[in-house]
Design goal:
seven-stranded mixed beta sheet
Length: about 120
Amino acid sequence: QVQLVESGGGLAQAGNSLRLSCAASGLTFSTYNMGWFRQAPGKEREFVAAISWSGGRTDYADSVKGRFTISRDNAKNTVYLQMNSLKPEDTAVYYCNARSSIGGNYWGQGTQVTVSS
């Protein structure tokens, strides 16, 4: 049974930082591309960042480029999202995603991030 468990969300003031973690189990983590998505109230879920299975390639939404950094530790089956210079518009539920080129696609339950101005 695949599980993705996010942690690290919470309340932060604008300009501050948070680091999200996503611990994976039940899959061969090192073969999955990992991503972070977010969904604000009344809006659709949107892409935030992604990292390839090896960690050699990363991709970011324009809205977070230069402020957020995605990384992974395959020995710990964990992917991270370091969020710096947070803005109120970063407020959302953040979801971890695991996607395999051979068809696996899994989501975590989400963690709330609230940024106050």
